[in-house]
Amino acid sequence: MKTGRLYLIPVPLGQTPVTNVLPEPVRACAQRLVNFVAENARTARAFLKSLPADKPLQQIEILELNEHTAASALPRLLAPALAGNDLGLISEVGCPAVADPGAALVALAHQRGVQVVPMIGPSSILLALMASGLSGQNFAFHGYLPSGTQEREKRLRELEKESRQQRRTQIFIETPYRNLQVFGALVNTCAPSTRICVATDLTLAGEQITTRPVSEWRCQQYPEISRRPTVFLLQA
Predict the structure, then answer these.
(1) d(Cα 190, Cα 128) in Å, to the nearest integer?
(2) Which terminus of the chain is more exposed, N or C, with fewer CB under 10 A?
(3) What are 78-131's pLDDT values in tens digits?
(4) What class of enzyme is it (predicted)?
(5) Using a CB cutoff of 8 Å and minimum separation of 24, what contacts does 47-52 make?
(6) What are phi and psi of 108, to 5 degrees?
(7) Secondary structure letter of residue 224 according to DSSP
């Protein structure tokens, strides 16, 4: 039996019209599918509801794949594609399978011979890198830093040293309510010449992207990033 395809469907990064950030083919694909796997079924349903109605939401099946999903559950999530039906993968925000548990489903799709189709949409990581002015030739994404103060500062020193040696841009994110703690650790730990980019509310009305050396950040008030989605980048 021929398998269906697994479509990786991006969603907006916040409260912004889908037509502003998603091309028509992506919206059309999301409208026609009836089987989805999502990190959060409620937010996925809200996204699908924002599209022009193509079918009642009651006809759509959304199964969840999050950080608590056991590996043994993945075959059941992929089952529609294995049965010959196209399947959509949706993250809570942005692009699925990037800093997202959906990567496990994509890996299984490859193992089972299911075609994986990535679709165009907003990625906060790449948008921040594009706008930072830091190296786009050599970069690495590190997810979240340690939450403990000493562990976080130690990790920042390691990332800064690696950046200096490899001429690499280091990218990381944080839970929005800890943004100011991370920013404080950056300006207090890194060398004065290290450049720091703070990219907040990407693609949204309040978007702010600023890159400065640590020496200048130390002379400024902390940016207004508390509880706002933010990407941090550094290059020594």
Answers:
(1) 20
(2) N
(3) 999 999 999 999 999 999 999 999 999 999 999 999 999 999 999 999 999 999
(4) transferase
(5) 47/11, 47/12, 47/18, 47/90, 50/18, 51/18, 51/27, 52/27
(6) -65, -40
(7) S
Cβ atoms of residues 98 and 140 within 8 Å: no
pTM here is 0.92
d(CA 93, CA 81): 23
Task: Please report the domains of the chain, with CATH numbers, ordered by start residue.
Answer: 5-118 (3.40.1010.10), 124-235 (3.30.950.10)
Closest among 179, 206, 207 to 196, alpha carbons compared: 179
Note the pLDDT tens digit of each residue in 38-48.
999 999 999 99
Report the alpha-carbon distance of residue 208 to residue 188 in Å, rounded. Answer: 22
Task: Specify the residue for token string 């100011």.
Answer: 180
Six-digit token pair at 221?
């008030």
**Burial category of 223 from C-beta neighbours within 10 Å (exposed 0-12, middle 13-18, buried 19 and up):** middle
Specify which residues 196 forms β-bridges with: 212, 234
Token pair in block for residue 110:
């490859």
How far from 40 is each of 47, 67, 200, 213, 234, CA to CA, in Å?
Answer: 11, 11, 23, 38, 31
State both tokens at 96.
């699925």
Cβ contacts of 188 within 8 Å, gap of 6 or more:
153
